Amino acid sequence: MKKSIFFLILICLSNMAKADWPVGKKRLMITPSFSYFYTSRVFDSTGKIRGSANGDQFIAKTLGIYGIAGMSRRLDLVFNIPISNITAKNIYVKETKTGIGDAMLGFAYHTPSNNLKSFFTMKALVILPVYSNVSAPYMGYGSKGARVAANYSFSPKKRSFAVIEGAYVRYFDDKDGPNQYSLDLTYGKELSNGFLLSFSYNHLSSVSDNKSFSTNLNINKDFMVGKVSCAFGKKVSRTITPYIQTFYTLYGRNAGQGFGGSLFVALKIP
What is the C-alpha separation between 195 and 46, in angstroms, rounded? Predict the structure, then answer.
């Protein structure tokens, strides 16, 4: 579940600024963020929502730094560093941990259309766990991995953008993976006076031979989850755009059913 939270945040941040277009050679975009996720119910193996007799709750608070550095007119360096505080508790016990989660580093290559109104983008990133799972609650799988993705971003109407992205993630250190597949759809529109509004849908399927389920949601490997989000921003200058975002879990299997929100600021340098 922690993985689905992490990738939802990453995808929303990467799609919000201006579709998924290149930032430009020798330019940098930094997006600091704070996000919150809460769940006290889960989708069971059949997709039905159920509570816990022991009052299980899972809370994740994350400070993140997402960045894009322009290496050329088409090639960008992409990185993300999350610092999370996670809490798993019930009526008997409360476990809390704070630390750096799964850092990501890689490249995005953009191929523009002839009129520069759309882009096809390929991404390849490595996943590096900057922690050790020696005590609960766990920050993640504690496994190295890789993420490859492809998306098409375009302007369906004036002053708007849309992004369609598919991605595949593989964790290598354990024979049961997992393998993860995601589909993300985003539509955004620039309103009057520099205001921006966007809507996103995210579906994530995690597949593994390990079918076990734990209320410590971080260690589940075989699950499925679908979420929607809405973000509202205001361009205060050419280089600064703050956003507020909410997201909600629509459906799932062996996953937490919850809600959350985030605050983030897109900073363009120069």
Answer: 41
Rounded Cα gap, residues 137 and 219, in angstroms: 9
CB count within 10 Å of CB 156 equals: 10
Nearest-5° angle of CA 89, CA 93, CA 95?
Answer: 60
User: Is 50 exceeded by the pLDDT of residue 10?
Assistant: no
Give 55-90 pLDDT, tens digit per residue.
889 899 999 999 999 999 999 999 999 999 999 899
Reply yes or no: is the peptide bond before residue 137 cis, omega within 30 of 0.
Answer: yes
- Number of residues in the chain: 270
Task: Lowest mean pLDDT of 55-59, 213-217, 223-227, name the range.
Answer: 213-217
Instruction: State residue 216's pLDDT score.
Output: 66
Q: What is the mean pLDDT of residues 140-167?
A: 93
Instruction: Judge whether 231 and 261 are in contact, CB under 8 Å.
Output: no
Half-sphere exposure of 92 (CA within 13 A, CB side): 4
Rounded Cα distance, 265 and 75, in Å: 23
Residue pointed to by tokens 């941040």: 13
Tell me the Cα Rg of the chain. Answer: 18
What domains sit in the chain, N to C, each tagged with a CATH number?
2-269 (2.40.160.40)
Q: State how far the Cα of 38 lies from the Cα of 259, in Å rounded to an integer.
A: 6
* Among the listed residues 269, 245, 270, the one whose alpha carbon sits nearest the alpha carbon of residue 16: 245
